[in-house]
User: Fold this.
Amino acid sequence: MPDASWISPILDEYEGPLVRYASHITRDPERAREVVQDTFLQLCRRGPGPIRDHLGQWLYTVCRNRALDVLRKERRMTGISAARLGARPHPGPEISAALELQERLAGILKILDTLPANQQEVLRLKFQGDLSYQEISRVTGLSVSNVGFLIHAGLKTIRERVRTEPAPGRAK
Amino acid sequence: MNRDLNDPIWTAYALGEVTDEKERAELEAIVGASPEIAALVAEIRETADLLARELMTGPEPGLAPAQRAAVQTRAASGKTWFGVRPAWALAAAAAVILFVSFLAQRQLFRPDPGRERMAAVLHQTAESAVPPPAMEEKSLAPAGPSAPQPERAESAPPEADAAAAPGPVPALPSPVQETSVPQPPPSGNERTEGPQNLLLEESLAQLPLASNDVMDLINIMGGVVKAEDPIFSDNTQTFAGVAAGNINIQRDGVTVSEVRHKSGTVSRSRVDPELVGEFKRLLAPVDAEMGRGVVRGPGGGFNTEAYAARTENPFLDALENPLSTFSIDVDTASYSNVRRFLESGRRPPADAVRIEELVNYFDYAYAPPTDGKPFAVHFELAEAPWQPEHRLLRIGLKGREIEAGKRPASNLVFLIDVSGSMAPRNKLPLVKEALGLLVDRMTESDRVAIVVYAGNTRVWLPPTGGDRKERIREAIGELRSGGSTAGASGIRLAYRTAEENFIRGGVNRVILATDGDFNVGVTSHGELTRLIEEKADTGVYLSALGFGMGNYKDSTLELLADRGRGNYAYIDGLGEAKKVLVEQMDATLVAIARDVKIQVEFNPRHVGAYRLIGYENRLMAKEDFNDDAKRAGVIGAGHAVTALYELVPPEAAGKPGVDPLKYRKPAPVSAAAAGDELVTVKIRSKEPEGDRSVLYEYTVKNAPGKFARASGDFKFAAAVAAFGLVLGDSAHRGSADLERALEWAKEGKGADPNGYRGEFIRLVHRAISFGK
Assistant:
């Protein structure tokens, strides 16, 4: 009987982060799990050999495309999609004021949620997926300098909001 | 340096994303000098830590247990995929690897016509604080007739881009900004919906089967805009203007979903036209691996193999051009490459046929020198079988042999390309087997080191005694491929390793194993070859072993080995590895003479015109013969080198194409010309460590024999040359054809202890079988 042990450490390392990441795109944890399962199945089909050195990048790429496909098929365009990644405008001042109120309650992740979708995505890939700018660039198709700009802008917004409205128990 | 607090560079610096050491050092200096910026960096890091912690904690969602189990079951059954690894799976993997390296290449070093445009977009972004759209998947209607004709800024200097790595890559802007989408063809063309450079239907039929993996990678590339097509979006993906549909195929009894291009389908997707050629180029290896015919478009089309254009030597008038000068060439790669083509059912491109390398592939029974000279020289003269009025002169050099067990201590540094493109079975796995063979022959006085290069470079195995075979084998066994190829930095590290372990009076050699795809890094050929020449002068030679197919860069490797005073062999299988690294190990490793040049002077009394067969890229100016600063080929221990001249007797030489000179008499001939000497052959060479050349001189009498009575070796060499003349589409092939070459080869086969001549005969049969 062939051996399946090679997949276990990969599952252990990536299944959580990938489901989280996919959930952020699909806005539906169940669908995210399906997407991630599909991603791993594809990994099994191809075998880990040739992509061993950029496994993370490969998994995020496939997962992202699958998740966006699901969105498209379901016509559930309420979340983000490739089309909307760049198109969603900054929240206006009124919305921001309302959200800042929530921030006190829910902290930094809420601030993250107020960011433009493309900033959110690269920040998640950076800090959740632990990918480099270069890898994020390959996963998303954005240029490296664009990735750098988005992360910079996203972190800056978060920094400023944390500073002006420190959430209880979160400020360092 | 920009001290603007709002510069994204500070974020990149804080997150450790500035990889360029120099730049990082500069930034560090600024941080050290500016408390304001130091505070900013600290604050960015703090926020990043906070965010990372928040994102990484909380409930771990994970897969449902049943989903996880399904994956594990699949992983177990998937063993057939990479355990047995059918060729097509390899092919798909190879294509994916190529794509990965292509992506890296595109991101790092690609001349980027969209750069200025992108900079403008970024600038605008910075002002509005709304980053540019990354991808746009709707409103892809073709630009209206009033839209401005797109102009591609092709003039962006590549140097500027390479220097600015990692440079921005144009993530596809929205249709309004996208200027690279081509205009629809003029009205009257039915394909008004698609990009201008849709592939022709007939070439679509030839496109390879692409796997889902390839599609996944294509989908993330900037420059591809997928069609929003309600009917096809679920099961159709697109690239290069070609629609592809999912189909289910049974392979090895397993049903798998693959993607096949629908011939002739017009896609609504748009592709940066710059990428169309890239897609075709990158998918060509898939075609090749699957044994399908390679389609060659007018400009070379799908074939990514690079061969230097070859212009065949003409017949020269012996009075006007009494001297013929060339460097010896011990390379044999062209033969194994030609063999690879023929065995895969294709005729090799004419430029891949270098006749001297075909002829030199075979060993001939030349006696080694007994007089202490570095080589012995043998001549034979007979009718040219393809043109009986002409003569064929064979010059054979045989290098001094070294006694068994007397090979000098060797300091070998294997420089191995482990980039993604090396993954297929006929590349890195074959490299590993080939090295294993060589390691078997190493002794305790030898040193073996391995340097690997891909995205970066490292010493994989530090110099290790040749008797520690287990350690060496272990290191070889652990070699893995992945990443892009930066050939130049690898070569530097290999030389450093070799120099640190230099064995005086021994063999010091870097052996490069690659498919030649130096696609990232300092790949200025000039710089690379200068480095190699410099090192060869210090006694560290370079040999090149070419592996694999598809993106095999023949011309690069030949050049490198030539400059490195080494030899160049193409390893297409374990048999070839044995020949080069075991049977001819001494010849491959131990140089016995270098800068070996041959100059032939023709006696116009007996020779009207002559033609050197092959050696087109080894010709030298007649003045270079006596110039010791001019480099030439190296001959290895026991190596046999053969050169063939086709000679036209004065009576058979046609009238010259020019009128007789008005102001000069025809050059007078000396008294020596009156004799029966046909040619004088002069050979110069240096000792491997020497700087001054020694001249050896020989004369050959004009006593041609019948071809039928020539030696077996002569006949066989003539057969191989004829084979090359036919495959190379020579204008001077006379009556030579494959059938005759076969006949002559059979006559000259002789004992053939290693079976190489028998293999040649089978190869000619094969060439005949699928037409000329």
Remarks:
- Confidence is low (pLDDT under 50) at residues 75-105, 167-172 of chain A.
- Chain A touches chain B through 85 residues (CB under 8 Å).
